[in-house]
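=== RUN LOG ===
request id: a7f3
mode: sequence -> structure
chains: 1
length: 206
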Amino acid sequence: MNIAKSVIVITAAGTPTGRAMAEHFCKLNARVALVDTDCQKLQATYEACLKAGGICFSFFLANRSVDNIAYLFEEINREMGAVDVLINYWQAGSSVPGLLTHKHPANDSIADTIADVASNLYLFGRGAAFNMLDKGRKGVIVNIPGVMSDQGVNQALDSSNAVIKGLTQSWAQELEHANIRVGGVLPRMRHSEDGNVRYTPRLTTT
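=== RESULT ===
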């Protein structure tokens, strides 16, 4: 795929990681669609991309409902053309709890956290897949989880990664016939010699 002039959608574009990815693709002359539910952070990323010399459009989502995300891809298609790449970056407020965690979270908290992980990835992935299919694009979907900075223990990180890995592998099989590739980038914690915790990406595909 030729990145130059390709339409690349980046979710959670207002986050530091989202902004870094957006600036990178702008510098490669891609057409970048910036998506976020935080208007101020989205605007900051948009301005940074313009300074980097990129071609970008910003799309503010009031909420991540089924209807809003479906309408989002219609707007992207109208303003920029068919989607070639979705950078499906998920960042939630907490990690999926481990089964044997000592601190027992409330039932509602568990359900909300797991639903947040799966539904955000699913809704954006579904919207992009239908857009690519409708327009005959041999596109790419990349699922990337956000790294939690608070109490980010290995077990919680592994649980979140497991959810994302399962969805990624399932979608790859489902979309193989349409030549839409699906991959995931999963962070892994490493302890360095200086005692600091560092996150390194690990690519997963099928």
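=== NOTES ===
The first strand starts at residue 7 and ends at 10.
The radius of gyration is 17 Å.
=== END ===
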